[in-house]
Amino acid sequence: IAVRARAKDNAELATDICTKQLIGIAGVAAERIQRALKLPNDFHGLSQVLELHPLFNPAGYVVAEIEGGRLHVHRSPAHQDGSWISLCSPASVQPLQAIATAIDPHIAVRITGTADDWTAEFEKSDTAAKEAPEVEVTKFSGGATFEFQQRRSLPLTVV
Considering the domain boundaries, does residue 157 fall inside one? Predict the structure, then answer.
């Protein structure tokens, strides 16, 4: 909402800015999910990350299923609201590529279908994809590396 307000009448600019934000967030979130759950750097690990990734959740809001190395996304309330998933399509593969690259740089993404009903196929590539600049910028911020720490007891003295 804030981006669209700043972009005023330039819907293309707003979409471009939001897509860049999504690319950075999607890649960092995928990496953090994989690391936290110690998932493998392969297609199986990617499938598990996709099931848990905020881009595809909550399940009742984003209609998506993963089967046979493919991700199927169907029109859903999330598309109607213009949420993050509406920024992914055959014309906008970069957010999904950022997720795949975070798991294994040798996984390439190809999307076919329409803007709100599409299938992403993940294939092994001989060439490693470079981390997207948007992901690098997101990692540069301190929030991307935030981790909870164990709390110690407070030294209290009863008076």
Answer: no
Amino acid of residue 68: G
Segment 95-154, tens digit of pLDDT: 999 999 999 999 999 999 999 999 999 999 999 999 999 999 998 876 666 676 777 777
- Condensed to tens digits (0 to 9), the pLDDT of residues 55-89 reads 999 998 999 999 988 999 999 999 999 999 999 99
Range of the domain at 14: 2-132
State the DSSP H helix or E strand holding residue 115, giving kind and residue range, or none if neither: none
DSSP label at residue 92:
B
Q: What is the pTM of this model?
A: 0.86
Task: Tell me the CATH number at 112.
Answer: 3.30.1380
- The span from the CA of 95 to the CA of 135, in Å, is 10
35 vs 1, 28, 32, 48, 65, CA distance in Å? Answer: 31, 11, 5, 12, 23
Q: Which residues of 55-87 are buried (b: 16+ CB within 10 A; e: fewer)?
A: bbeeeeebbbebeeeebebeebebbeeeebbbb
Count of domains observed in the chain: 1
